[in-house]
Amino acid sequence: MTDTPAPSSFRLAYVPGVTPSKWARVWGERLPETPLDLVLVQAGESEPALRAGDADAGLVRLPVDKDQLHAIPLYTETTVVVMPKDHRLAEAPEVPLAELAEELVLHPQDDVLGWPEQPPGEAAKERPRTTKDAVELVAAGVGVVLVPQSLARLHHRRDLTYRPVPEGEAPQSQVALAWLRERDSELIEEMIGIVRGRTVNSSRGSTATAAANQAPKRQQPAARKQGQQPQKQQRQQKPPARGSKPASRRGKPGRRG
After folding, report:
1. Helix and strand tally (H, E) in the chain?
2. I want to staple 83 with a disulfide (CB 3.0 to 4.6 A). Which of 22, 87, 148, 190 is the partner?
């Protein structure tokens, strides 16, 4: 008796702040025979991981090298300012960058916003190594930091809050699905369909998967012909009582001539 080979898995890398759980759940429903392995990588390591074959595709932050990678943008994040809860701007609905001119603004080495120049405000003497380190410094009362909203949520602390920057004033981080150009496959197409919200029966996805996952149709009652009325249930006549005379026929017999 030969052993059945284990189904191959699909490895999906994702960077901090991205939550692939919703797409992973849909993958499990559509492709139960192909496990989805989620691989957490740092933002700066996502492209090397794809090139090295450590993942089949990745939820990454743009930009990426489009000469080697396909990339489908999925959404753009709001940029926010992380600050202590007792900060003078903590109650503001938005924080324009001009309000940070005299603030110490930390610029972590793993920054994903891609500032064309130094972020606004006063620069620290040393850049924190990671965004997490920067948030911890903010909690200690050292400056503020600008990050995508998902990273503010990821590193949330009770003594901190964050407020959005008006759109157009600061760079924003865009999340995309990316994979190597030479690694197109049916499973890649399946993942594209899932993150784009295609239904299981979409023509762009795998037709075999769509057919395999199609729920069996319930048997429908036979349709009536057009104009046909449903038959009424005939009333069941009661048997005549004892001693009673049989009912007479309608109409009187005609006279014989």
Report:
1. 6, 10
2. 87
C-alpha distances out from residue 85 to 127, 144, 148, 152, 160, Å: 23, 11, 18, 13, 5
Per-residue pLDDT, 118: 87
The owner of tokens 């199609």 is 214
DSSP strand pairing (160-164 vs 174-180):
unpaired
Q: Answer with the residue of higher pLDDT: 89 or 224.
A: 89
pLDDT tens-digit series, residues 171-224: 999 999 999 999 999 999 999 999 999 987 764 544 334 433 444 443 343 434
The C-alpha torsion from 176 through 51 and 42 to 112, rounded to 10°, is: -50
**Which is it for the CA torsion 181, 186, 191, 192, positive or negative?**
positive
Pairing of strands 57-61, 174-180: antiparallel
Going along the chain from its start, the domains and CATH numbers come out as: 10-76+174-211 (3.40.190.10), 79-164 (3.40.190.10)
pTM (2 d.p.):
0.75
